[in-house]
Each structure stands twice: as structure tokens, then as C-alpha cells.
Amino acid sequence: MSANKSLLILPGDGIGPEVMDEVRRVIDWFDRGRAVKFDIEDGLVGGIAIDEEGAPISDATMDKAKASDAVLFGAVGGPKWDGLPFEMKAERGLLRLRKDMDLFANLRPALCFEALADASSLKRELVAGLDIMILRELTGGVYFGEPRGVEDLPDGTKRAVDTQVYTTPEIERIARVGFEMAQKRRGIVHSAEKSNVMHTGVLWREVVQRVHDEEYPDVELHHILADNCSMQLVRTPKQFDVIVTDNLFGDMLSDVAAMLTGSLGMLPSASLGAPDPATGKRYALYEPVHGSAPDITGQGIANPCASLLSFAMALRYSYDMGDEADLLEKAVSNVLEGGMRTADIMQDGKARVSTSVMGDTLLRELDKLNG
Ligand code: NAD
User: Fold this and answer.
1) Ligand 1: does its nearest atom lie under 6 Å from the Cβ of 75?
2) What are the φ and ψ backbone dihedral angles of 266, each rounded to 5 degrees?
3) What are the CA-CA distances from residue 353 to residues 22, 102, 300 (Å)?
4) Which three-class secondary structure string do you get for 276-313?
5) Which of 59, 150, 231, 344 is placed for a possible disulfide with 265 were both Cys, Cβ 3.0 to 4.6 Å?
């Protein structure tokens, strides 16, 4: 059996394949520059999978995803597939990956590179060097709770219901991911809920506190109401290290945090499953936060950084290669410091470059950093 690290790349649609090409070049560089070998497989997902295989993701691709150490996902969707019925939508490919691999922990780092601090809507001193991790519970809560639906009432009006529901094990497992992440970072967790008005918030708070006291007393834990957390994120974001929260609040808070950092083209993410008790292996999917950007597809101007930084997360969380992840993140930071900008992050006085020139510059930077 190969000792190499396995990786399934699903470029998807639109700019997905364009940005993934730059990741492949970096993977080749790691092979040459650091003798790190990956066994790479490719698969189809989204619109292209519908066209060529008849479904947004085939069973065979799902099997490959489960067999890989990690999945790197580009983006899916586009106008060509917009009119398809719900079950055939391109986005169903991503939803099936998340569901079938039970990817309950969604990691959304909000990293503000010094060079891009002026692109934030907040003052430079509030965001320069920002490094927060928003950890969102992804498979439970109000987006999945039953009962849900819309019913007709006798008086001709309607009634809509969504149910916010969490169980002790669901909260325990996301809390553990949060504490373990904090142990590798600055050691602080903020747990955000609405225990003042929601029963799920009361349980969330109790369980997070117990998991902390019993298993992670070394981590500094703060409980914060989710609405206050959103205010604090735009007031003094650097007070946070890891924020752990539920599916609904995480949806909002991760987008607030994302905007502190400037552009969609810079934002990576990871979604992790539970570790297998026997092997320790966990399912993992890494993807840029942005979509398939049909408005710029084929122009060679997409920003590859979100995908490159997603690969850096894979190095850190799936392959336990923290040094290589640091190296890649540092190279991205240096390229930005050097004044290279794709169109989405362009600033006065900087050099506007294409996707592939950004990639070329990054490879040179990796060479330099690698000595
Ligand atoms: P989008 O993220 O694709 O694009 C929003 C805007 O940001 C566009 O102007 C786009 O050009 C720009 N942009 C996004 N990524 C960029 C990058 N890397 N470099 C430079 N500019 C970038 O969101 P949208 O326009 O709302 O959706 C387009 C399609 O993508 C839709 O079909 C949508 O369903 C799909 N989508 C997919 C995902 C996913 O695959 N995870 C996520 C969001 C949207």
C-alpha cells in the first residue's frame, strides 16, 4: 500500500478548475521542493458532473471521497444549471459530500493579511494581522430540525415552522473540536449562543462548560451571547481566537468575520467529520468560500488565494503538516506584500496580475522561503 498522502480534487464548475490548476502547481512544488508526495485523484462535481455523469455527484466519486485523506473542492453551479429541479441542482453535489461524510465541523478562518488591511471596511489598526477561527456546527440546528414546513391555516393565512434542536452529543463533539483547535492556537474559546432566550442556548452553554471543565481546563473559555458576539466582531475583533457556535449563528458570524478581511477571493474553509476511534482518520473537505463566479469564468483573472489557503488548511488538519501549511501561508502573504493583486483585491499603486501570474509569483516565493 502506498504511504503517500491521498487527495481527491473536485474542481467543479466556473472558476473552480482555474483556481485548482494553481493548487496543483503548488502540490507539484511540494513534491519537488519538500519531497512530499500526494496520490492525487480527480473527480467531477456540480454542473459538469450532471452533464457527464447524470448526477451532481456520482456514487463512484462519493466512494473516492470517502477513501481519500482529504477532498479539495473548487466551486459548483452556474446559469446553465440554474433551472434544474431541486434534487438535480449543482449544489446538491456539495450537500451530499457534507451529509454522507457527516462533516459537522465547519472551520472558517478570518485572516487579515497586513497587505490587505486597507481593503477592510474597518480601520486598519483593528484588522491588520487579524487571525480568528469561526467554528460552526454544520449538520444540526434549525436548518435540519423537525418539524419544519409551511401550513395553511383555516383563516386563509399560513404558518411557517423551523425547529432549532441540539442534543448533548452534537454539542460535545463540536466543543471538543473548538477546544483542541484553541490548544494549537492562542488557547481562547468564545462559545456563542442565546441562552438568555433559547432552550438550545441553555443546553449549549451547560455542555460546553462541562466539556471544558472535564477535558480542557487549560483553555480559557468565555460564554458570549451571539448578538453581542456580532457586535464585538466589528468593534474589537482581535479579542477573539476561536469562536464556537451553532449552525444558524455560525452562518451569520462567519460572514461578518469574513468581511473584516476584505475579499471573497481570499477566504478558505474546511469541513471535518468525527475522528474514527480506531484509526484517528477523519473525513475532511476543503474549499474556498466563494462560488463559481460565472461573471469572470474563462478570463484568467480569478484569485487563486482562497483555494491555495484551503490547501494550506488541508496540510494542517488532514496531513499534520503544520510547517508546510505555515510556509504556504507565508508565501501567500509575501506575494501580497510584494504588491501582486488579482482584480478583486486590486489597490492603487499595485500590480494587477492574472491567476497564473499570481501562481508563478507564489512558486518563486516558495523557492525563496525554502532556501
Ligand atoms: P460567487 O462567489 O461565485 O461570486 C460573487 C462575486 O465575487 C462575483 O462578482 C465574482 O466574480 C467574485 N468572486 C468570487 N470568487 C472570486 C475569486 N476567486 N476571484 C475573483 N473574484 C471572485 O457568488 P455568486 O455570484 O452568488 O454565485 C455564482 C454561482 O456560484 C451560483 O451558481 C451559486 O449557486 C454558486 N455558488 C457556489 C458555491 C460553492 O460551490 N461552494 C458557493 C457560493 C455560490
Assistant:
1) yes
2) -110, 0
3) 14, 39, 9
4) CCCCCCCCEEEEECCCCCCCCCCCCCCCCHHHHHHHHH
5) 344
Residue among 264, 332, 341 to mutate when testing ligand 1 (max atoms within 8 A of CB): 264
pLDDT confidence tier of residue 4, bands split at 50, 70 and 90:
confident
**86-90, 156-160, 211-215: least confidently modelled range:** 86-90
- Pull the grid cell for residue 253: 458570524
- Please give the Cα distance from 361 to 240 (Å, whole number): 32
Query: Domain check: are 186 and 256 in the same one?
Result: yes
Q: 208-243: string of b/e by CB count within 10 Å (b at 16+)?
A: beebbeeebeebebeebbbeebbebbeeebeebbbb
In this prediction the pTM is 0.93
324: domain CATH number?
A: 3.40.718.10
Asked if 14 and 118 sit in the same domain, the reply is no
Cα of 358 vs centre of ligand 1, distance in Å, is 19
Range of the domain at 26: 1-104+273-371
Separation of 201 CA from ligand 1 center, angstroms?
A: 33
Query: 249 with 140, same domain?
Result: yes
At 3, the pLDDT band (50, 70, 90 cuts) reads low
Q: Give the span between the Cα atoms of 113 and 240, in whole angstroms.
A: 16
